[in-house]
Design goal:
Elements (H helix, E strand, L loop, with lengths): L1 H11 L4 H8 L3 H9 L6 H11 L3 H5 L3 E2 L3 E2 L25 H7 L7 E5 L4 E5 H19 L8
Antiparallel strand pairs: 1-2, 3-4
């Protein structure tokens, strides 16, 4: 788990073992032992590593697997990877239980479906409406500003 995550994150970010060791003030050999699983970092060093890679300590030590893909690197801090879902013939999906629990999604919850070139995202209607309201307030404040050339 930890050793695999350290290796994946280092490679994804294009670092050498030497570069990571320098960033957290240890020898390359000490870091190499963490990646080989011979030893593990103390909690302070784990926190430093998590900071370097932009992940949480919790995700650094967990084994993340996605069905059909296998082991995946930890998600960036504040992000989650819930796994895969299959769209039924009727266009329905089942949101993974951990995701439903985290976001309080129950039967009858209304979600907005957003999208861009990369895919879609689901957002609670209330959160979307709050963001939209704030954007509209900001836009209306700017519209009320009288520019010097319009006086």
């Amino acid at each position: 788990m930890l050793k695999d995550n350290l290796m994946m994150l280092r490679r994804i970010n294009g670092y050498s073992q030497e570069q990571i060791a320098e960033k957290i003030g240890i020898s390359r050999q000490a870091y190499a032992k963490w990646e080989s699983g011979a030893t593990i970092p103390d909690i302070g060093r784990a926190a430093e590593l998590a900071g370097v890679y932009g992940v949480t300590v919790d995700s650094l030590i967990k084994d993340e697997k996605v069905e059909g893909i296998g082991a995946i690197p930890p998600a960036p801090a504040g992000k989650s990877i819930w796994g895969t879902v299959t769209v039924s013939e009727r266009g329905q999906i089942v949101i993974p239980k951990d995701a439903r629990d985290k976001y309080g999604i129950t039967g009858g919850t209304r979600l907005i479906v957003l999208g861009d070139e990369q895919g879609i995202a689901l957002l609670p209607v209330e959160a979307f409406e709050t963001g939209l309201r704030k954007a509209m307030e900001y836009a209306s404040k700017d519209a009320n500003v009288t520019e010097p050339w319009t006086r």
